[in-house]
User: What shape does this take?
Amino acid sequence: MKIDDSVREKKRKELAEKFINGVSEISPSFSEHFSRFWKDKKCDGAMQDKNRELLMLLAGLVDNCEPCVRFHMANAMKRGAAEAEIFETVSVAAVMCSDPSINDNIKKCLGIYEKFKKNLIK
Assistant: This one.
């Protein structure tokens, strides 16, 4: 069953607030960092934007979020991710995810990649 994007975002917001509250006692500095990251999905520049997009692509694959995969695939490619980097990201998802649906997610992801690649070449 597909989850509506607005419901997904509301749930993520609730989980983020609980997460921040839960880690603030353990690591206040991480809690502050995560709060900034959650706000605009960017950090302090410790990681290149391309690499962050590849990680978000990985998360979208594992989370079975096709809109996330489309968005972060496009952003990773716009930021210069090479085919080998995208394939390695997808391979990590395949190796690390125990959910059988990952195979379908990867097929969709690779289809999205091939479409984006054709559009970028033209």
Q: What stands out?
A: The longest helix spans residues 5-24.
